[in-house]
Amino acid sequence: xxxxxxxxxxxxxxxxxxxxxxxxxxxxxxxxxxxxxxxxxxxxxxxxxxxxxxxxxxxxxxxxxxxxxxxxxxxxxxxxxxxxxxxxxxxxxxxxxxxxxxxxxxxxxxxxxxxxxxx
Length: 119
Hints:
CATH superfamily of the largest domain: Winged helix-like DNA-binding domain superfamily/Winged helix DNA-binding domain
Order of helices and strands: HHHHHH
Oligomer: single chain
Radius of gyration: 21 Å
CATH architecture of the largest domain: Orthogonal Bundle
Helix content: over 70%
Strand content: under 5%
Number of strands: 0
Number of helices: 6
CATH topology of the largest domain: Arc Repressor Mutant, subunit A
Distance between the termini: 18 Å
C-alpha cells in the first residue's frame, strides 16, 4: 500500500484523535494532494510548520494503528467481502440451470455488498 493511501486510510479511522489543525493539514496533504507550500499559504503558517504538523499527525495515527489495528482489520474485512462476492459469482455461473441456487447467490451477494458498504 502506498504511503499516501495508508495515511488517508488511517486519517479516516483515527482522524478524531488529531487536533483540528493537524487533521486539516493532513487532509489537504494526503487527500487533496496539495504541496506543503500550498497548505502553508492556506493555513497562514510556514512550510516548515506544515511539515512539522503533518509529521506529528503521522506519529499519532501510526501509534493509534499500532495499538488498535483497526485499519488493518478493516482492510482484511474488505478483502474477505470481495472474495465472498467473487466465490458467489463463480457458484452462480457454475449452477446457471438451478434457479434456487441462483436466487440464493443473488441474496448472498447483496448481503456481502451491504456488508462492504457498511465498512
